[in-house]
Write a structure and sequence with these properties.
single chain; 186 residues; alpha/beta; Rossmann fold; 5-stranded parallel β-sheet; globular
Length: 186
């Protein structure tokens, strides 16, 4: 099994990266191969709502007209058996880089060809809140909605707050081991 981890966190050593790394360690312990992508390190523009009706090639062909790193990440994701999406929580919601990526992904997935190797692919979401941590649950709801709209089969959504990061890392590691052996939902 191969799993891609897509992170909307700028800090490769921060809490979001630590939480997702615990999941990746579990995946590897379960025999999975992994790839990690940090969205803020890439050039991924926000959706332009190309034509007068707010659509473009995304609705007609399942592809985006913007020439940036978005298609490369989508192709890597499509070539994997499963996906992990990790985001820090900002204002109770997704990071801006994760939002930009998922807004464009759900648009191309509206077209039949855009759904290729996305529809039914299993995914796990991890939302990590700093501060008081109260935004992790609402961010998890938002991430699950975005992933489901794009066609993913969301098998777990893990809200994390800085106060419970250490215990959640243990849970995420175990979740990774489970996921490595169960890429399809039952």
């Amino acid at each position: 099994m191969k799993v891609i981890a897509i992170l909307g966190s700028r800090n490769p050593k921060g809490r979001t990266a630590q939480a997702v790394e615990a999941l990746i360690e579990g995946l590897r312990a379960g025999g999975a191969e992994t790839e990690t992508v940090f969205l803020p390190e890439l050039k991924i523009e926000r959706c332009r709502q190309c034509d007068d009706e707010g659509w473009g090639l995304c609705i007609r062909k399942g592809e985006c007209v913007i020439k940036d790193d978005f298609p490369k990440v989508v192709e890597s994701m499509r070539s994997c058996d499963g996906a992990v999406f990790g985001t820090p929580v900002y204002f109770g919601d997704l990071s801006e880089s994760m939002r930009a990526f998922l807004d464009r992904l759900r648009r191309i997935c509206l077209h039949e060809s855009g759904k290729d190797n996305v529809r039914g692919k299993t995914a796990i979401g991890v939302c990590v809140a700093g501060g008081g941590g109260g935004g992790a649950p609402s961010c998890s709801v938002s991430l699950e909605s975005e992933l489901s709209t794009s066609g993913f089969d969301v098998v777990d959504m893990v809200p994390v707050r800085r106060q419970n990061l250490d215990v959640k890392k243990k849970i995420l590691s175990e979740l990774g081991r489970w996921y490595a052996g169960n890429p399809k939902s039952d």
